[in-house]
Design a protein that fits this description.
Layout: H1 3-13, H2 15-53, H3 67-74, E1 85-90, E2 111-116, H4 120-137, H5 139-147, H6 152-156
Antiparallel strand pairs: 1-2
């Protein structure tokens, strides 16, 4: 008697255990395949969202970012644009800034300077969010004004 005949007879003798084992293997393989499909779908969705939203990477350096570094970053194929910002503190000479505190602390006399390279889209998004939050905060007020007959343009303007 060969080994496969013995295996077949063993499986035939213990039918219920063999069927239960086969069902367990089938369920486990379905779960593994489902997890693989879900993982691939999540990765594809993540890449799609990143492409559509234009995710940002912010680099901050205490010493500053050189022009060579910017050229290398622009050389990367997945980089669509670079928006450089610079912040610095200045101490004005000949005039004093408007401050809330009185005192002789030199930091009270400091002015923060901010420079932006390209803020067109960022400014649009910020203004859009401000408008959305403003309209949400005035939702009930606008409803009352509309119900008493005010025109929409007079409420928004």
């Amino acid at each position: 008697m060969t080994f496969y005949e013995r295996a077949f007879r063993y499986i035939w003798r213990k039918r219920s255990q063999s069927i239960l084992l086969l069902v367990c293997f089938f369920i486990i393989s379905v779960i593994v395949l489902s997890a693989t499909v879900i993982l691939q779908s999540a990765q594809a969705t993540n890449l799609s969202i990143q492409e559509k939203t234009g995710t940002k990477l912010v680099l901050h350096s205490e010493t500053g970012i050189t022009a060579d570094t910017i050229a290398q970053i622009q050389g990367i194929s997945s980089v669509s644009k670079i928006n450089r910002t610079v912040s610095n503190t200045a101490f004005p000479v000949g005039f004093s800034p408007v401050i809330k505190k009185e005192g002789t602390d030199p930091l009270n006399m400091a002015v923060s300077l901010h420079a932006y390279d390209n803020i067109g889209m960022d400014a649009f998004i910020i203004l859009f969010l401000i408008f959305v939050f403003w309209t949400k905060s005035r939702k009930h007020e606008m409803g009352i004004l509309l119900s008493i007959g005010c025109r929409k343009i007079s409420i928004i303007g």
